[in-house]
Amino acid sequence: MRQNQRASITGIGSYLPGKVLTNYDLEKMVDTSDDWIIQRTGIKERRIVENGQITSDLATQASLKAMEDAGVYPHDLDMIITSTITPDHFFPSTSCFVQQKLGATRAGAFDILAACAGFIYAISVGQSFVNSGAMETVLVIGAECLSTITDFTDRTTCVLFGDGAGAVIIQKSSAKHEILSTSLAADGSQADVLIMPGGGAKTPASVESVQQRTHYIHFRGKEVFKLAINNITSMILETVNKNGLTIEDIDLIIPHQSNLRIIEATMEKLGLPMEKAFVNIDKYGNTSSASIPIAIDEARKEGRLSKGDLVMLVAFGGGLTWGSSVIRW
Ligand SMILES: CC(C)(COP(=O)(O)OP(=O)(O)OC[C@H]1O[C@@H](n2cnc3c(N)ncnc32)[C@H](O)[C@@H]1OP(=O)(O)O)[C@@H](O)C(=O)NCCC(=O)NCCS
C-alpha cells in the first residue's frame, strides 16, 4: 500500500531553551538600543542555552516531540540527520549523540553542514532516502547553539542570533504533508561574506586565532542582505514554475528567519502581502538551521496551516547556500 505514497512530514516538534535574552539585556552589553535592533532586524528577544545545555540536548528534545507527534518510537528510526553549524564537537557528529540520547539503536546518523539553508538540504536528503525506498522513517533535525559562536562584544553581529531546535519525521504517507519538491543551490565564490574563519584546517585553534576573535560568526551584513533577497526571490519563482504553479497558489511562505527586512523585501518583490509569510523572528532571532522547523511547528500550532494548503519553505545562508521546498499540507 505504501508504494504509491510519497515522502511526507508525519511529525513535527520544536524546543527552545528557557533563558530569554532581550534587546534591553544587549543594551547593557554593547552600544546598541532596543529601537535600533527592532527597526533594523525585527528582533525583540532571543533564547540562549544555559546550565551546560548543548546542541544535541536541544535536538533531542525537539526530536522527542516530533516522534510523539508521528507516533514513532526510537527503534523505528532508520536514519538521523542533523543540520547544524554548532555541533557538540567537530566529530563525531551531533546526530550520533542524539542517537544515543534517544536510544535509537537501529538508526544510522550523520550531520549536514549547509548553514542557514541546512534544514532544506537535510529534508532533501531525508525525502530521497524515503522516496527511493531505502528507508522508511527518517528523523531530520535543525539544531543550533549559535550563542556559542556569537561575539557578544560585537554589536554588528550579536544582536541577530539565538539558540533552538526543530525536528520532523519523514515517512511515506498519503494522509500527511507531502513534500512535493526540494531545490538546492550554492555559490562558493561568495564563501567569505558569511563565515566563521577560525577552528578549521585553514586556521586551527591557536592563541592567535582566539586573540583575533576568529572563532565567531563574521559577515558583511549589507552584502548578505542583498544576496539573500535576490536569491530567495529567484528560487521561490523557479520553484513555483517547476511545480507547475503560480506564486498566487502558495498559501504560506515559511522563510528562514534572518532579518524581518529581508522577509519584507522578498514579499514585496514577489508582490505578495506579508500575511502570506510566517514570521517569528521577534521572539527567537536567527536560529540558523533551526529556524524553519521551529517556524513550521509554530505556524501549525497557530492554525496557519490547513489541509491542502501549499506551503513554501525557503532559506538562505553561509556557503553561500540556499534552498526551497514545497509541501502540500
Ligand atoms: C546586520 C544588519 C542587521 C545591519 O543592518 P544595516 O541596516 O545594513 O545596518 P548597517 O550595517 O548599514 O549599519 C548602520 C549603522 O548602524 C550601526 N550599527 C550596526 N549595528 C548596530 C547595533 N547593533 N546597534 C546600533 N547601531 C548599530 C553601524 O555602525 C552603522 O553606523 P554608521 O552609519 O555610523 O556607520 C543587516 O545588514 C543584516 O541583517 N544583514 C544580514 C546579516 C547576516 O549575514 N545574517 C545571516 C544570514 S542567514
UniProtKB/TrEMBL annotation:
One of its GO terms (molecular function) is 3-oxoacyl-[acyl-carrier-protein] synthase activity. Keywords: Acyltransferase, Cytoplasm, Fatty acid biosynthesis, Fatty acid metabolism, Lipid biosynthesis, Lipid metabolism, Multifunctional enzyme, Transferase. The keyword ATP-binding does not apply. The active site is at residues 116, 256, 286. Pathway: Lipid metabolism; fatty acid biosynthesis. It is an enzyme of class 2 (transferase). One of its GO terms (cellular component) is cytoplasm. Its EC number is 2.3.1.180. Residues 241-329 form the Beta-ketoacyl-[acyl-carrier-protein] synthase III C-terminal domain. Pfam families: ACP_syn_III, ACP_syn_III_C. Residues 110-188 form the Beta-ketoacyl-[acyl-carrier-protein] synthase III N-terminal domain. Catalyzes the condensation reaction of fatty acid synthesis by the addition to an acyl acceptor of two carbons from malonyl-ACP. Catalyzes the first condensation reaction which initiates fatty acid synthesis and may therefore play a role in governing the total rate of fatty acid production. Possesses both acetoacetyl-ACP synthase and acetyl transacylase activities. Its substrate specificity determines the biosynthesis of branched-chain and/or straight-chain of fatty acids. Belongs to the thiolase-like superfamily. FabH family. HAMAP family: FabH. PANTHER family: 3-OXOACYL-[ACYL-CARRIER-PROTEIN] SYNTHASE 3, BETA-KETOACYL-[ACYL-CARRIER-PROTEIN] SYNTHASE III. This is Beta-ketoacyl-[acyl-carrier-protein] synthase III. It comes from Candidatus Brocadia sapporoensis.
